[in-house]
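Hypothesis: this fold can be encoded by more than one sequence.
Test: take the structure tokens below, design a sequence, compare later.
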């Protein structure tokens, strides 16, 4: 696909590097399936697509002219059009290809993705849609938002292949940038991994809204690095685990700069024989004075056979900070259930009603009305499913 030499070499190095890491059971499952895939080398066939560049100039050699408004390109096409931006940022500042075996192989076997570039001071009024039906197993989005720029990004991708998928999204925010990011992806394979990682410069603001309504085993890596002073990140999540599904949710906000604010709110429902684990970490590094790190994890269990775990962690290396966490796991209140059943509802309908009441307070905080309505519909569908 006419990939540049620097990208070829970087991917070859990733193959060599991955052998040095200790593997995890989830990573072994995914990589074993990848290496058996006869279509492993399949690449996204849209690299010849012309950029969706608003008001783009014809001179692709000048970044300022090319990105007169903002850029939306296939990832491999962007590697040639914007080589400096990608060489410096692709899996370097947010999702690091040198952090784990799975990340290294994700880069080495990368099939496709999108490149979004919003220049300094640009305000994108309409949401940027990252919505595709994707048959590829390794898909990666790189989003660069310049200083003072603003955008809303909606990611609703469907991994239609049967091979385990790794969907990665990097969000790089410049000074004073603001991003509202929404995600509700779908997977067809039984074992999948998704990562959304952000790197934030000073005074940038990131609001991350996540709905994990997928029906398959899933490991996640949601992370924000507040590197510059005065930055703020908020991660709000709702999730459901049902059947024999296993969801392992890793959420972390790193307060690296002074006067940064990190907030994690996640509500999850687990039923049938499913397993749901919340691992939330708020880390305040030395020098991040005046930082504020808060987290809240709540899990509602709907059966005696399901399992839930909430693991709140605060790592504090600075004295002048404000930090706290809260975690709870509990069954549906028996009195509430009895009251609803006494009013003529079946046990199933009563559980559905109570679950909606548990998740909607978080879901209703998603600012985008259209997306919120769609997610409420998806929530209703998930709650109506019955598993043996």
């Amino acid at each position: 696909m006419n990939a540049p030499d620097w990208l070829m070499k970087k991917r070859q190095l990733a193959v060599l590097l991955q052998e040095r890491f200790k593997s995890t059971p989830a990573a072994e499952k995914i990589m074993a399936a990848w290496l058996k895939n006869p279509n492993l080398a399949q690449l996204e066939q849209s690299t010849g697509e012309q950029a969706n560049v608003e008001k783009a100039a014809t001179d692709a050699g000048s970044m300022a002219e090319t990105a007169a408004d903002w850029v939306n390109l296939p990832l491999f096409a962007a590697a040639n059009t914007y080589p400096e931006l990608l060489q410096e940022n692709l899996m370097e500042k947010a999702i690091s290809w040198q952090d784990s075996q799975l990340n290294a192989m994700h880069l080495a076997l990368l099939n496709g993705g999108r490149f979004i570039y919003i220049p300094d001071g640009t305000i994108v009024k309409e949401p940027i849609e990252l919505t595709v039906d994707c048959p590829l197993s390794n898909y990666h989005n790189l989003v660069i938002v310049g200083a003072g720029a603003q955008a809303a990004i909606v990611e609703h991708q469907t991994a239609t292949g049967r091979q385990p998928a790794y969907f990665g999204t990097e969000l790089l925010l410049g000074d004073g940038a603001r991003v509202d990011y929404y995600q509700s992806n779908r997977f067809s394979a039984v074992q999948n991994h998704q990562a959304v990682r952000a790197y934030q410069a000073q005074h940038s603001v990131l609001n991350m809204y996540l709905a994990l309504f997928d029906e398959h085993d899933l490991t996640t890596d949601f992370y924000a690095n507040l590197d510059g002073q005065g930055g703020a990140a908020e991660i709000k999540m709702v999730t459901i685990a049902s059947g024999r599904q296993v969801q392992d949710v890793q959420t972390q906000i790193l307060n690296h700069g002074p006067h940064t604010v990190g907030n994690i709110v996640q509500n999850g429902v687990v039923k049938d024989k499913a397993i749901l684990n919340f691992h939330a970490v708020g880390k305040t590094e030395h020098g991040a004075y005046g930082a504020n790190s808060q987290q809240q994890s709540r899990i509602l269990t709907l059966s005696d056979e399901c399992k839930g775990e909430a693991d709140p962690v605060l790592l504090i290396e600075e004295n002048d900070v404000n930090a706290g966490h809260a975690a709870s796991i509990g069954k549906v209140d028996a009195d509430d259930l009895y009251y609803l059943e006494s009013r003529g509802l079946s046990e199933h309908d009563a559980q559905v009603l109570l679950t909606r009441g548990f998740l909607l307070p978080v879901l209703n905080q998603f600012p985008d009305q259209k997306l919120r309505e769609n997610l409420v519909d998806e929530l209703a569908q998930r709650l109506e499913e019955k598993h043996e």
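Confidence is low (pLDDT under 50) at residues 46-67. The chain is about 25% helix and 40% strand.
Hypothesis status: open.
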